[in-house]
Design goal:
transmembrane helix, mainly alpha, 2 domains, membrane, MetI-like fold, cell inner membrane, transport, globular
Length: 367
């Protein structure tokens, strides 16, 4: 197993390099970079990102500048009439005075040491920014994963036992409908119905806690926290449990038809003993081993739109705003961290397989 783990870790290096290289190349052709963001601010067309960087249109990067002054052409859209020397200082401030390859390898060298630099438009390091937003995304990821497994496993087992019955048919219909409805669309429906839209005003629309959270008792804090999470979790769990439910059902059906189950029943064991004493461990192998991957998926990808809809200040909302602002240090740091964690979680899932079922030996297979 040690040789297999070593091979997998070594394969992570070219995989991660490829992810970062492709993303970096795509970014080079994307219009509206950080320099253009500031230029747009100077010419009266900027948004929030340029506002946060500049503070005022006359002082950027410590350089006093009159946007009406200066002549010359520039490769940046909207930069006509701006002083080329100022544009050069702005490029240097963002690191764009170096060739793309040099910037790429400098970025990789810094990322290997987990040095992600500072945000372009926020006066804080990227790592501190990510750590600040992480509790919200961790809360969503943990609760989505736990709730989906708590629903999926009992439901999947029941569907396997009642395979072909009316219960199996109508629950499959509900699962298919739930899986087909996009989480963000269901979230908007919940917001309209229960969060002060057109009907009821029962749930809050912003944040994980209320403004008076610190003044509440311990029980009050727990209720307030769950009150804020009710709608986002409902929207996310709707489709999250579908795959695990069907996976659990199919795993149990496959095990139930095996000879050892027939033998156990022939010995007079109760159905409960057969299911949970013999079938459960073998059937749940693939489901339990997929737990880390399910958590990472819910943690990093499932909550992006939900965080935006319900104004939850987590990693999803941070990544979305960073892309809009062209805050490249935050964008690439998120991509690097998420990709690295995803690769390690894939390895952990394989190791869990071997821990649950020692018969599995990955060293005898090609990586």
């Amino acid at each position: 197993m040690g040789a297999y783990v070593l091979r997998r870790i070594l394969l992570m290096i070219p995989t991660l390099f490829g992810i970062m290289a492709i993303s970096f190349a795509v970014i080079q052709f994307a219009p509206g970079g950080p320099v253009e963001q500031v230029i747009a601010k100077l010419t009266g067309q900027g948004g929030d990102a340029a506002d946060r960087l500049s503070g005022s249109s006359g002082d950027i990067g410590g350089t006093n500048f009159d946007p009406a002054g200066g002549e010359g052409s520039s490769k940046y859209r909207g930069a006509q009439g701006l002083d080329p020397e100022f544009i050069a200082k702005l490029e240097k401030q963002f690191g764009f005075d170096k060739p793309p390859l040099e910037r790429f390898f400098m970025m990789l060298w810094n990322y290997i040491r987990f040095d992600f630099g500072e945000s372009y438009f926020r006066d804080v390091s990227v790592l501190d920014l990510i750590l600040e937003k992480m509790p919200v995304s961790i809360s969503l990821g943990i609760w989505i994963t736990l709730l989906s497994y708590m629903i999926s496993i009992p439901l999947g087992i029941r569907k396997a036992v009642k395979d072909g019955s009316s219960f199996d048919i109508w629950t499959s219909g509900i699962i298919i409908i739930g899986y087909a409805i996009p989480a963000f669309l269901f979230a908007i429906l919940l917001m309209v119905l229960f969060a002060g839209g057109s009907f009821f005003d029962w749930f809050p629309l912003r944040g994980l806690t209320s403004e008076n959270f610190d003044q509440l008792s311990l029980g009050g804090k727990a209720l307030d926290y769950l009150w804020h999470l009710a709608l986002p979790l409902t929207a996310l769990v709707l489709s999250a449990f579908a795959t695990t439910t069907l996976l659990t059902k199919n795993s149990f059906l496959d095990e139930i038809r095996k000879q050892y189950v027939v033998t156990a029943r022939a010995k007079g064991l109760s159905e409960h003993r057969v299911l949970y004493g013999h079938v459960f461990r073998n059937a749940m192998l693939i489901v339990v081993a997929g737990f880390p991957g399910a958590f990472i998926s819910a943690f990093f990808t499932g909550s992006l739109l939900i965080e935006n809809i319900f104004s939850l200040d987590g990693l999803g909302l941070l990544g979305f705003r960073s892309v809009l602002d062209r805050d490249y240090p935050v964008v690439f740091a998120n991509l690097y961290i998420f990709s690295l964690l995803g690769l390690f979680v894939s390895l952990i899932s394989d190791l869990i397989y071997t821990w649950i079922d020692p018969r599995i030996d990955f060293e005898r297979r090609d990586v």
